[in-house]
């Protein structure tokens, strides 16, 4: 069908109306082919007219000459429970020169799910009236998948939000760059963002979106915080949401999980770039052994055609946590001391074992040997072995970030820093210079620690340090695996800090190839010190430094047994016993050098 001009009036509208339709299923789409060619061919738009709603909803628009060719338009309708029809309007202002035509109109997946004779699968739900058998993950997701509303009955409103009446129990993060905006209808900028919400499929419904126009800058972030949830084992807690990422400069949407209130969490899922003019459903299975919170983070691209939308966010199989998440300590030791201690007679220079109240010397705290029955003297210390697989930093912390924590949005977000990563979460541009697999599991799902060079500038450094280690033994060493690949890789150093004095123990610079490399650093006997991994950024983002499987080996200090040394042992001047094989080996095994004395 094409348009023929039959009047000389200044403003003309050619209108084509569809028949009326009763309803559609949740996966319904409309497609057609259109032709819009000519110097003054004018604009056209498709409107949705729903019974009972005065305001039409714009579903599709074309503004200008699109060449002498047929183009396909695909429009997401979704679940429309009320009678409706379409109006295709062609507008000409004064002078019309061109050809506008439409052909091959098609509806797909618009029927409700068919009835079933039975629905015994435990992973499915049997609809009350329509008798359809639907996936149980579609229950209480704010979408009438059954067609009779039975899958949305008896749902906990605290676990759902369609943004029709505000943010529900979600909150805007106060430590990001800007906020998500609640809106109806299309976003202000054409050729980006949704035209309608997902809940109602009309301009009447509300949703959240990120405005990418000025004053926003590239990589500005807006974070939405969920309520708190109780621990969820084996992924029984499910998070469902719908997102819209349309525009040639759309950048990134990500979902994170955290168990500490002053951390940014670890990445569960992300999507990068233009995904088309449609709402897309995403389902995430959430696991965790501690109370947690979900963060939804949108990141602005390099331009104003980068709006991102969110709607119909719901949880299934989750329970709300009524407490507060703990905060990670920013003290050097890595954790704070509980406010109440057991009854004890310890002095200020002694450590109190948390379970028994026993007193031990402070030098016995964080020495890689548990002296308390509950191991509380080693609980606020660096872990002996760390593979990062539980997404825990194992006691390692970043002093520089802790000092800047009061100005999170301005500094920490764009700072060259260490963070947890894995191959499954890499962005397309990271795959050439960041590990695709970790060293522990050799899979994309395994975690490692890396310094992200997409932040910061040439020469910037990122430090990650242990809490203070009280004492180590004579054969103590650090084993770790490092990954340094990329055309502009910087350097990695291992440092020892004692008081205000810092010394370099190991260094490596430049690209070392696309594989994990083993490194070993000797520590020996040291007291009251910290180990620091320092990454130095190269001239560009093409080179990330990563480490994995950090192990402190043979680091427990010598222990006086109280018994005489055996015939196979040497008695040190300080009464320690060491193997005779360790004599005169250029290592201070006794801690007083008596095993290296020329008089032996």
From TrEMBL:
<dbReference type="InterPro" id="IPR051560">
    <property type="entry name" value="MAM_domain-containing"/>
</dbReference>
<feature type="domain" description="MAM">
    <location>
        <begin position="159"/>
        <end position="320"/>
    </location>
</feature>
<feature type="disulfide bond">
    <location>
        <begin position="140"/>
        <end position="155"/>
    </location>
</feature>
<feature type="domain" description="MAM">
    <location>
        <begin position="1"/>
        <end position="112"/>
    </location>
</feature>
<feature type="disulfide bond">
    <location>
        <begin position="572"/>
        <end position="590"/>
    </location>
</feature>
<dbReference type="GO" id="GO:0016020">
    <property type="term" value="C:membrane"/>
</dbReference>
<dbReference type="Pfam" id="PF00057">
    <property type="entry name" value="Ldl_recept_a"/>
</dbReference>
<dbReference type="InterPro" id="IPR002172">
    <property type="entry name" value="LDrepeatLR_classA_rpt"/>
</dbReference>
<keyword id="KW-1015">Disulfide bond</keyword>
<dbReference type="Pfam" id="PF00629">
    <property type="entry name" value="MAM"/>
</dbReference>
<dbReference type="InterPro" id="IPR036055">
    <property type="entry name" value="LDL_receptor-like_sf"/>
</dbReference>
<feature type="domain" description="MAM">
    <location>
        <begin position="384"/>
        <end position="557"/>
    </location>
</feature>
<dbReference type="InterPro" id="IPR023415">
    <property type="entry name" value="LDLR_class-A_CS"/>
</dbReference>
<dbReference type="InterPro" id="IPR013320">
    <property type="entry name" value="ConA-like_dom_sf"/>
</dbReference>
<feature type="disulfide bond">
    <location>
        <begin position="366"/>
        <end position="381"/>
    </location>
</feature>
<protein>
    <submittedName>
        <fullName>MALR1 protein</fullName>
    </submittedName>
</protein>
<feature type="disulfide bond">
    <location>
        <begin position="565"/>
        <end position="577"/>
    </location>
</feature>
<dbReference type="InterPro" id="IPR000998">
    <property type="entry name" value="MAM_dom"/>
</dbReference>
<keyword id="KW-0677">Repeat</keyword>
